[in-house]
Each structure stands twice: as structure tokens, then as C-alpha cells.
Design brief:
- By secondary structure, this protein is an alpha+beta fold.
- It has four helices and six strands.
Length: about 200
């Protein structure tokens, strides 16, 4: 190059150089765009984690406000505090869920009491003991509920009580009314130790 001009003015060579420089610029631009998108996603993720942590820390405050509103008269000051708190938390994306009549969802509900009802084939939330909260698709706290539905299977009930299933010998004894002889111990079972008196050791 002399005085800012190319010494070789071959059109084909200039065209190849132009294409190479254009590809380099496009590659650098694509890398920068990907970097900028990745930084934006990381910032949004960090911000959402921070908001979720703050909302989790304020859930006991909401519970205290709910208990106060349920047991104390609604004064103008208490109503203003409650409305302001719920409005500001709602702007941050906090959503409450859990209503009577909802189908029980183990991913969102936590059953505290189970009422058995043979008239239904599904578990229904019949009472909300403590509401659940979420932030978008992120679950902050499940709802504590009482459910009403069919009884669990009989096998699960027997296992929960620690009952062993009846074997064939016991069933035959119940049907015939005659006791069955005791089964022999298995070969791998150890024999009980003998009741011989241990000999005294000689004095040292």
C-alpha cells in the first residue's frame, strides 16, 4: 500500500479481500450480539432471584396481616396497611393461589388433613388453611389445604398400620378350623444358645 492506496488493483483479489473483511465484521457483530443477549439474561435472572428472596422474606408478614384481619376489627389504619402491602407486592409479581373447590395438585398444594368421602373419585381442596404464593412460574410456597376424596388403597392402609398379609397356612387354618403345625426353622437361622452354666475361670 502506498499513500493509502492498494498497490495491486486486481479486481478479483479486491473482491476476495472485501468478502473476507465483510465476513469478519459479520462474525464479530454476531458474537457481540450474543454477548449482549447473554448479559441481559443474566441480569434478569439475578433480578428475579433477588425479588423472589425478598418476597419469601415478606410472606410471614402477609400471614400476620391475614390473621390480624381475621381476628381483629377492620379499622381504617389496618385496611390501609393491608391494601398498600398487597398492592406493592402485587406490582413485584406476587400472586396468591388456593381456593376451596380446587383439584388437589401435589405440585402446588400440601395436604394437611384428609377427609374420606366415597362420593367422589378425586381429591378436592375443601378448606384453605394457608394460601400459597408464586412469582410467575416459580413456586414460592405451597398452599396448606384440607382435602376430601376417596380413601387410599387397602394395601397402603395395611402397610401404614404395620400389618403383615395373611399367608396360605393361616388362611387354611381359618377355613378348616384346625391349627396348622408350626413351620420348621429355615436352615440359615441360628440355633438358640445352650443354657449350660459357664465354667468359672481359674484365678490368675
Amino acid at each position: 500500500m502506498d499513500n493509502g492506496r492498494l498497490q495491486n488493483t486486481d479486481p478479483d483479489r479486491l473482491r476476495r479481500l472485501l468478502e473476507e473483511r465483510t465476513e469478519d465484521l459479520q462474525r464479530v457483530k454476531a458474537e457481540y450480539d450474543n454477548y449482549r443477549k447473554r448479559v441481559r439474561r443474566d441480569r434478569m435472572a439475578v433480578g428475579q432471584i433477588a425479588v423472589a428472596n425478598v418476597l419469601r422474606a415478606l410472606l410471614p408478614v402477609l400471614d400476620a396481616v391475614d390473621r390480624t384481619c381475621a381476628h381483629e376489627p377492620m379499622t381504617p389504619g389496618l385496611k390501609e396497611i393491608t391494601d398498600t402491602l398487597r398492592t406493592q407486592l402485587g406490582r413485584l409479581g406476587l400472586e396468591a393461589f388456593g381456593q376451596e373447590g380446587d383439584l388437589f395438585d401435589p405440585a402446588r398444594h400440601e395436604a394437611v388433613v384428609h377427609h374420606v368421602s366415597p362420593n367422589t373419585d378425586r381429591l378436592i381442596c375443601t378448606e384453605i388453611l394457608r394460601p400459597g404464593y408464586r412469582l410467575g412460574d416459580q413456586l414460592l410456597r405451597p398452599a396448606h389445604v384440607e382435602v376430601t376424596g376417596p380413601p387410599p388403597p387397602a394395601r397402603n392402609l395395611a402397610a401404614g398400620r404395620g400389618e403383615a398379609p395373611h399367608d396360605d397356612a393361616e388362611q387354611a387354618e381359618q377355613e378348616d378350623g384346625k391349627p396348622t403345625p408350626p413351620a420348621r426353622p429355615a436352615a440359615w437361622m441360628k440355633r438358640a444358645p445352650s443354657s449350660r452354666r459357664a465354667r468359672p475361670r481359674p484365678p490368675i
